[in-house]
Amino acid sequence: MSILVVGSVAFDSVKTPFGEAKEILGGSATYFSIAASFFSVVKLVAVVGADFADENLEVFRKHAIDTRGLQQVPGRTFRWSGEYGFALNEAKTLDTQLNVFESFRPEIPDTYRDSEYVFLGNIDPILQREVLSQVRKPKLVACDTMNYWIQSKLEELKKTLALVDILIINDAEARMLTGQSNLTKASKEIRSWGPKALVVKKGEYGVGLFMDGSIFGAPAFPLEEVFDPTGAGDSFAGGFVGYLAKAGRFDDATIRKAVIYGSVMASFNVEDFSLNRLKNLSSAAIKQRYQEFKQLTHFEVDEEF
Amino acid sequence: MSILVVGSVAFDSVKTPFGEAKEILGGSATYFSIAASFFSVVKLVAVVGADFADENLEVFRKHAIDTRGLQQVPGRTFRWSGEYGFALNEAKTLDTQLNVFESFRPEIPDTYRDSEYVFLGNIDPILQREVLSQVRKPKLVACDTMNYWIQSKLEELKKTLALVDILIINDAEARMLTGQSNLTKASKEIRSWGPKALVVKKGEYGVGLFMDGSIFGAPAFPLEEVFDPTGAGDSFAGGFVGYLAKAGRFDDATIRKAVIYGSVMASFNVEDFSLNRLKNLSSAAIKQRYQEFKQLTHFEVDEEF
């Protein structure tokens, strides 16, 4: 089944303790699309400027991502630059240039409107609803957001959340969104606004999944070399929604598996700069890391105590 | 099998957003002992002052903890006071009075010297070795430490670690100890100094266990009400070492189970002030929470991808 994703396509300039890369392809919808493409058909909705060369489309084409919804307009493509310190846990944003993204009005091609899965990437919650209203009959809607929208457009965001099945955010965002330090309590409040499930990303500390009557926790995959954390959250979302779309079910067991596939994709993504690792990933490697997650988290039932 | 534990017995004054308690029984060896007593016989080595009343011994007696190694000397008992903010993740120490702890020289009663399990609580690494040298033939030695010893007595600490099987510290301590931000790398370095296993406590984010050729990760138990985090790390160590002593084995599967029992004890401990929750805990409740951990972390092998 196919996934419609709306979000940013950008040129990133990233500096980490291990190196530097300038004007490389990035953006939330880019990372999401490539990660999700290992599981499902992906239909991309985003905007780029006149400076977006044909060669930049190559990676989308190679992964059979539908780019008919990628508008190209006069002006410059969205640019972000950031830097990671020693601990690699949080990007310090050095510069954000919205450029063509500033006046982005998503237009959904007619061939996209029957998408059964929708991922509303981190854009203005009003635009998120605009996109959603153009999809005929989605089976599952997942959504991301960020501190900027929580602080500046909370009421609009809540209107969007009322239409969303699964919210995927990080722990700081869950706390900011609710004013609740305790994530279990925060998850209840967020789910009272609409989402049936909340996925809380905790970076190197893993992921929590909160649903009615079921909580799932998984650690992050322990890597000796984390090269560039940019896009980890979006790669997670891509693997997560991608697997759900592939499975076509949303029962507890399937959503838990999707969390692990999301974690698998995030763990690969941080192993190299930009999309380099995801670009060269094989299904066999994904399968193997899923099994390694099983080993990582396995403990036996205890009969002795 | 019995566990010898050396560490602090203290009077704590604790303030959290949910309440306040003054001069309540605490200390690393206290939390460790009570938690471990649900699994094994515990022999306590510590020092208290003349102000330590008989009634303070009640909780140790009730849990059949051997207190023949608890010295009572003239002076005041060790006191600590701290405060937790909204996020409850880190104590701000308001005051530390070492008192009788300052000149503590652990003396191990002869009846303790055949203990097969030893837990060296967070005290001066020189004293940790002094204790260990008085134990005849320990099967397993586990150890804790803190930033103070890492900064002031690193070489002494490394000499102690050379004699230790399992080091149990938090993530900030693991990073400080090695200067390595990456925990997988830090664990390798620490294990090159002696310990066969490193347990990294991450508070609300769970625990990582690093051994040769095996890494285990477990989330913390999600609680809606965290009342007082004091003693969580020591309760973890008590459940962890307590279960290992009960099992009498140190294979991979057993150590993983021990991590879960440690996490179970820590999760109970934070549900109420001081020792209140551990004091009133039943084996049935421990057993049930272990099973809940299984549900929390369970996901299926995937045959579809």
Write a structural description.
Two copies of one chain form a homodimer. With 305 residues, the first copy, chain A, is of the alpha/beta class. The first copy, chain A, is 35% helix and 25% strand. The longest helix of chain A is centred in the C-terminal third of the chain and has 18 residues, at 252-269. The model of chain A has no long low-confidence stretch (mean pLDDT 95).
Number of β-strand runs of chain A: 13
Kindly provide the radius of gyration of chain A, computed on alpha-carbon positions and rounded to a whole number of angstroms: 18 Å
Largest sheet of chain A: 9 strands, mixed
User: What is the CA–CA distance across the termini of chain A?
Assistant: 46 Å
Q: How would you summarize what this structure contains?
A:
With 305 residues, chain A is α/β, with parallel strands linked by helices.
Descriptors for this entry?
alpha/beta, four-stranded mixed sheet, homodimer, about 300 residues, nine-stranded mixed sheet, about 25% strand
